[in-house]
């Protein structure tokens, strides 16, 4: 769809003046993440966690994640890309603690609603259960399902 020049000018005036700075920062962020993936392929990292903030289905973060995902398709065993920028410090601390203690904890997740795990949280691109599983995997733990308990709410 081609916009009329006046309409285009009107829309361009709505773009914040600091948009160029924002786009440059996004470009640097993407470059750093992709470079880290390359370093991992060279053996610098055993595992690489790339947490993303504001992972709405569409937007800049989604485009960055798509670029990273394209680069890591064959390396999914050691590159984890998932929503969770706010809690990444806690997850990585727990991972280091488990490595130091030589522990692989089992995590049992219980939900209060059968629909809860299927809900896609605001500003994320996947259902809650997928995000929780990514967090558990990232900290080096096992997803634990108790045989005698119903697990219908967690796929």
Tell me about this structure:
The protein is mostly helical and 155 residues long. The chain has helices at residues 5-14, 19-41, 60-72, 88-100, 128-138, and strands spanning 48-52, 79-83, 106-107, 142-143. It contains five helices and four strands. The protein starts with a helix and ends in a 12-residue tail after the last strand. 45% of the residues lie in helices and 9% in strands. Helix 3 (60-72) links the parallel strand 1 and strand 2. The protein has one domain. The strands form two sheets. It has a two-stranded parallel sheet. The protein has a two-stranded parallel ribbon with strand order 3-4.
Instruction: List the strand order in the largest sheet.
Output: 1-2
Beta-strand content bin: 5-15%
Q: Report mean pLDDT, rounded to a whole number.
A: 81
Global outline: globular
- State Rg: 19 Å
As residue ranges, the low-confidence spans are: none
User: What is the ordering of alpha helices and beta strands?
Assistant: HHEHEHEHE
Q: What is the total tally of β strands?
A: 4
Furnish the topology, listing elements before pairings.
Layout: H1 5-14, H2 19-41, E1 48-52, H3 60-72, E2 79-83, H4 88-100, E3 106-107, H5 128-138, E4 142-143
Parallel strand pairs: 1-2, 3-4
Quick gist of this model?
The protein is mainly alpha-helical and 155 residues long. The protein has 5 helices and 4 strands, in the order ααβαβαβαβ.
């Amino acid at each position: 769809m081609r916009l009329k020049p006046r309409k285009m000018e009107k829309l361009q005036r709505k773009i914040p003046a600091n948009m160029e700075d924002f786009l440059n920062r996004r470009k640097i962020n993407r470059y750093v993440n992709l470079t880290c993936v390359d370093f991992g392929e060279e053996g610098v990292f055993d595992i690489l966690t790339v947490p993303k903030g504001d992972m709405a289905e569409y937007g800049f973060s989604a485009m960055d994640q798509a670029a990273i995902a394209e680069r890591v398709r064959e390396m999914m065993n050691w590159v984890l890309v998932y929503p969770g920028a706010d809690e990444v410090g806690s997850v990585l601390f727990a991972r280091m603690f488990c490595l130091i203690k030589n522990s692989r904890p089992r995590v049992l997740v219980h939900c209060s609603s059968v629909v809860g795990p299927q809900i896609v949280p605001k500003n994320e691109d996947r259902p809650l259960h997928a995000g929780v599983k990514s967090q558990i995997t990232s900290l080096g733990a096992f997803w634990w399902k108790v045989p005698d308990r119903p697990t219908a709410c967690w796929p």
